[in-house]
């Protein structure tokens, strides 16, 4: 389906929970002036209704936003609201996606795996499998759709990403989690990447160079060649109640705090 949207000339979005008076006439400002002067979206009355639309919380609508060349938004009563470029500042906040990716100024395959996963962290689908299947185009992947497998689909998706990509940020999840118990190395759900929106990869970092060894997901777990670090977590909230040093794995990515 991602390719359908990608090959389309225009994609029309009807927001069934919005009416024409929901969004004020923010398009009256000339486009160039708006970008030059900036758009104070917090000063615009009723604009939060647009950003709070259910459309921004559904799993399948992520590809409908990012794949097409042009997206035109309409209210439930068929009044034109604007394009993804005209509404980019609002969409960026509503979807937690940088403006450059919303407007396609920067290709959506440019950011890290963790960052792209974070775009789906607040979205839901009726079927648990669709949470994974709706992301296939976002990662330029193909895999069989096996309805009935439940959350195993998301594990398969991560396995395909590991197999086809060298982006280690797929392991950089749970950054805003308060959990104090052990988990597997892979995430259970895109929501685990909620705090990973500012994770970037370090493609050329010689300190972390592990040669040509490729990480691999096997039937026994994740096989990875790594630099071992002993970390003392005794004074932190994440010591899991166990004293002594822990073993850490260096990843070719970093988290930018903004």
TrEMBL record:
Residues in DUF8212 domain copies: 152-183
InterPro entries listed in its UniProt record: DUF8212
Name by which UniProt lists this protein: DUF8212 domain-containing protein
